[in-house]
């Protein structure tokens, strides 16, 4: 292969010869790029969803094949984001499929130095018991002036910006029914 043959294979030379100055035509294609296919091509289902990162609520399309997520992209029909995602939203595929994601409940006993794996049911039961115990130990039927208050100040809640109105409504209902009055949300919009 001579120098001219080698130069003729160079993409810039191919672009100039074909007058493809923007580099958008076939002159920039390689064997590898011609074999590339979209990850969404083989999806057997597409579901609409909302990005979990902030309260903006950007629309997402979640592509699945055989019940497994294959790609997540912005939803062009979303009136909020019109198909666009911020860097965090664009990386949400990694959030749900990444190998770094914990897929089991880890628990470290008081004074312990190592994490142990426990079943989800056991973890949920532990949380429920601790909420009940704290509520019982800090329950106030009446305040110092004798007014009926039926509350606990031993538990508080600070919600994050990823919670939507419906989730906040349900959380507030749950905590109010438990007598928890210190309920706040760190909303961004």
For the structure shown, list the relevant keywords.
oxidoreductase, three-stranded antiparallel sheet, three-stranded mixed sheet, 189 residues, alpha+beta, Mopterin_OxRdtase_4Fe-4S_dom
Structural description of this entry:
- With 189 residues, the chain is of the alpha+beta class.
- The protein folds into 3 domains: 3-35, no CATH class; 45-97, Single Sheet (N-terminal domain of TfIIb), CATH 2.20.25.90; 119-185, no CATH class.
- It has helices spanning 3-9, 11-18, 31-35, 87-90, 92-97, 120-138, 165-177; strands spanning 45-50, 59-65, 68-74, 105-107, 116-118, 139-142, 148-159, 180-185.
- A 3-stranded antiparallel sheet has the order 1-2-3. Strands 6-7-8 form a 3-stranded mixed sheet. A two-stranded antiparallel ribbon has the order 4-5.
- A hairpin with an 8-residue loop joins β4 and β5.
- Belongs to the prokaryotic molybdopterin-containing oxidoreductase family.
- It is found in: Cell envelope.
Entry summary:
The protein has 189 residues and is α+β, with helices and mostly antiparallel strands. It has helices at 3-9, 11-18, 31-35, 87-90, 92-97, 120-138, 165-177; strands at 45-50, 59-65, 68-74, 105-107, 116-118, 139-142, 148-159, 180-185.
Characterize the largest beta sheet: strand count, sense, and whether it forms a barrel. 3 strands, antiparallel
Uncertain runs are: none
Gyration radius from CA atoms, angstroms: 27 Å
Helix content: 25-40%
Number of helices: 7
The averaged pLDDT comes out at 89
Topology:
Blueprint (H helix, E strand, L loop, with lengths): L2 H7 L1 H8 L12 H5 L9 E6 L8 E7 L2 E7 L12 H4 L1 H6 L7 E3 L8 E3 L1 H19 E4 L5 E12 L5 H13 L2 E6 L4
Parallel strand pairs: 7-8
Antiparallel strand pairs: 1-2, 2-3, 4-5, 6-7
């Amino acid at each position: 292969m001579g120098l001219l043959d080698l130069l003729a294979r160079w993409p810039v030379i191919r672009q100039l010869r074909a007058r493809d100055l923007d580099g958008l035509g076939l002159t920039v294609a390689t064997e590898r790029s011609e074999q590339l296919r979209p990850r969404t091509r083989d999806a057997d289902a597409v579901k609409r969803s909302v990005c979990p990162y902030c309260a903006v609520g950007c629309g997402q399309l979640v592509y699945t094949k055989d019940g497994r997520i294959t790609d997540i992209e912005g939803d062009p029909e979303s009136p909020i984001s019109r198909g666009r995602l911020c860097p965090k939203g664009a990386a949400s595929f990694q959030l749900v499929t990444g190998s770094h994601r914990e897929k089991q409940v880890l628990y470290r006993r008081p004074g312990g130095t190592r994490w142990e794996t426990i079943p989800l049911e056991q973890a949920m039961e532990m949380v429920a018991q601790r909420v009940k115990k704290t509520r019982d130990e800090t329950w106030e039927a009446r305040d110092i002036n004798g007014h009926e208050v039926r509350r606990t100040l031993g538990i508080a809640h600070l919600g994050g910006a990823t919670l939507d109105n419906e989730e906040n409504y349900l959380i507030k209902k749950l905590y109010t029914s438990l007598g928890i009055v210190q309920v706040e949300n760190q909303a961004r919009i």
